[in-house]
Amino acid sequence: LNGENPLDIWGRLSQKYRNFYHSLLLRDGAVCVDTHIIRYYLNKHPYSKIHRITIEDVFKRRWAYEIIQKHIMVVSKEMGLKTYQAQAHIWVLQRGGNMW
Predict the structure, then answer these.
(1) Residue 93: its H or E element
(2) What is the C-alpha to C-alpha distance for residues 50 and 24, in angstroms, rounded to an integer?
(3) Which of 13, 36, 16 has the alpha carbon at shortest distance from 91?
(4) What is the DSSP string of 28-78?
(5) Which residues lie closer than 8 Å to 41 by C-beta, 6 or more apart?
(6) What is the model's pLDDT at position 8?
(7) Cα(30)–Cα(77) distance, integer angstroms
(8) What is the pLDDT of residues 16-34, one digit of tens each?
(9) How far is CA 4 from CA 7, 8, 9, 10, in A?
(10) In 84-93, which positions are buried (b, 16+ CB within 10 angstroms) versus exposed (e)?
(11) What pLDDT is recorded for position 81?
(12) What is the structure's pLDDT at 87?
C-alpha cells in the first residue's frame, strides 16, 4: 500500500478486498463475498442464474457479486445482526462449524 489509503487501492482492485477491509473496521453494509459466502448462497438458491457461472466468475461479474451481497444484507437484517456479524456466522456454519 506504500502509505496510501487502503480504500483507494483496494477500491480499484476488487469489491471483495474493499468490503473485507470495511468488515475489519466493523462497518455495517459491506459484504465480503468469498467462496464460503458464494457456496452458502448457491445452497440456499438452487435455481439461481449464478449456478450457470463458476465460483471464480462471481468475482468477475459485478451483477453476480451484487446479487449475493444483497442476499447477505437481507439475511443479516432478518437475523438482527450487522452484515459482518451475519457473515461470521455464515462462514463458520458453511465450513461445518457450530457457533453455539
Answers:
(1) helix 83-94
(2) 27
(3) 36
(4) TT-----HHHHHHHHHH-TT-GGGGS-HHHHTT-HHHHHHHHHHHHHHHHH
(5) 48, 50, 67, 68, 71, 72
(6) 67
(7) 13
(8) 777 777 777 777 778 888 8
(9) 9, 7, 7, 10
(10) bebbebbbee
(11) 94
(12) 87
- Give 28: exposed, middle or buried? Use CB within 10 Å, 0-12, 13-18, 19+: middle
Q: How far apart are CA 93 and CA 21, in angstroms?
A: 22
The position carrying cell 457479486 is 65
Enter the C-alpha cell of residue 29. 453494509
pLDDT tens, position by position, 72-86: 999 999 999 998 889
Poorest-pLDDT segment among 18-22, 41-45, 48-52, 67-71: 18-22
Q: Which three cell numbers stand for residue 80?
A: 438482527
First and final C-alpha spacing in the chain: 38
What cell does 8 get? 483507494
